[in-house]
Amino acid sequence: MDYLDSPAEATFRSDLRQWFTETIPKFFPGERTPRARLALDGARRWSRALFDAGYAGLTWPEEYGGRGLPVQYQAIMLDEQARAGAPEHLGIVGIGHAGPTIIAHGTAEQKAKYLEPILSGEAIWCQGFSEPESGSDLAAVRTRARLSDDRWIIDGQKIWSSFAHIADQCILLVRTDPNASKHDGLSYLLVDMKTPGIEIRPIRQITGDSEFNEIFFTGVEVPQDAILGQVGQGWQVAMTTLMHERATTGLTFVANLDTVVNRLTQYLNDVGADGDPLVRDQFARIWIDLQGLRFTNYRSLAVAATGRVPGPEGSIVKLAWSVTNQSVTRLAQQVAGPYALLSDSGEPWGGYWVYEQLRSRANSIEAGTSEILKNIVAERVIGLPRSR
Amino acid sequence: MKFILTEEQVMLRDSARSWLARHFPMSKVAEVADAELGGEESAWPQLVAMGWVEAATMGMTEAGLLLEESGYSLFPAPFFVSVGLANPLGADLKEPSTVAWAEDGAPYLLDALRSDIDETGRVWGHKVLVPDAQLATHAIVTTRAGLRRVVVEDCTIVDTPSLDGTRRLAELLMDGVPSEAMADVNLPTARAWMLAAVASEALGVASRALDLAVEHAKSRQQFGKSIGAYQGISHALVDAYASTELARSLVNWAWAAIDSKDSMAVASATAAKEKATSVAVSVCETAIQVHGGIGFTWESPLHRFYKRAQWLEAFEGNAPVMRAQIADLVLGRPAN
Question: What is the pTM of this model?
Fold first, then answer.
């Protein structure tokens, strides 16, 4: 793909590749490929290293500590990150969701207080959007915030919040006016996770791991100026968050898939399965779909580079990515043969594929279920009548 | 092409679509397909005059754009064989040309051959599965002595029934047919162009089948609403849309990689051929299903797209063959 880079992009790519080559071994001593996930302090140090080298917040404006680069550079970053098998910056929610929303809607004080610690990895953010009764139908949130003197008092429950158990701050969508219409009664708060009355319960997943959490709010008091944007504008502010989420998650999905396919290639070789014609056929399907997804992103990037709004092709990336990632992990488990009976350390790669296979089931549920995404594409992209 | 078309390329594509819609509407295509020849010889001078032939020899992107339109309209003319197959072998395209490589037991371009020439340069051989031989004036023939150009009229042509009525097949019997030597070309490189050409047409077929299916799902009413409002229909169409867009991305990659002489040119064309042709087949199947009984009739145009899709999928290596080649490229050849 390098023939697609401009000279400046090519320089950026080669500098970055060099930096990864030098830096990654310091974090993963003795490992052939960094498969293990970093513990929290390691992840913080990694994020700090990215920040110090100028690789955090590439697309953020320079005045907020970013590099002010076009999204193509983010794509190169993710490409090279996948190539190197490097971990992500810890501030996924902060850099991708909270930060851009604060940049768009925040006061000068909010920007000064929150933005830089996001990039440096000091402040970890989580997102409090979904609720038990408000999943795909986000505007139905029930968590209440009422103004009492100069404080917001928050009561309610959020769910599926990644990083909440280690987060310092939360972007929280709440109902401030129960009498207003569904979308107009919402507001958007920035909440310190150390505030009394917040209880976090990790959700144990089918992997046995807990990435997601429930957050309970009981009489939680935050200052009146914790609001982002105006009272009653929470839906519009939340849409900014989701727009930023969609703008780059396609790139992230494909970069992660690239990493996993590289590992699959290595695994097939390790277990001696890469000569099996059925495995080769399945592998080729996966590889072709990976390239299809990669170049779907390139199509969007090429349009974005001209300053225009990318076409609707980006809407399929998450749908197709989830199917492909699920088939990667399925193939890896099939290759293990009877050893797929074992869990964790019994498996040839010490549990890596057992975990990834189970984890991949969430791919078609998290960040918009495939069914909801298909409804959206059916109505907004191919122009079919509404199904409800 | 770096994943975005220039203004000239957009104009070329748009003018091709409107010219084809005007001169080859579905009624005309059906008439030609069910007639003896299965194609219009007379279209060639017009294609030359409109600059399509010249444009298509400029680069893979231009050729691909036009071939996508040729698939979209099921253009029944020797355009695909000339631009998609003969051009990368160095054909002179003042007149339409096809390429003859397949032999019994040696169906693929890179297979070992029996056809040969004698000391006077006459070709002796028996080629099969030669596309649109009846519509082309010249054929480029692969022989043990390299590429040779023959006049089709000098050969004995035996029609072989083709699945696709708009793209006929023939056997070409050459018992000492006069020929000219062609300049050597790198066959794997030329084949990448051919595969990308097939993929481009297949992409056009998939797009058209999808358009027809979406149109039907919007207009057909049952139980008081458009059938496109039912998720059983709409989700199938979204799957078809998603796979068509993935195929488009791979086809665009192949165009860009071939035009840039990138090291991934062969891989990209192979991937594009695998995906675009299998997607064309499956989107046509979805379209037939969405149309219900009407989709199963001869009167509906869908079977013609479906047959073209299957023709393209089977031509020069079907999807499993393409996947085996991808595995060889990415994983290396198996040890045995």
Answer: 0.93
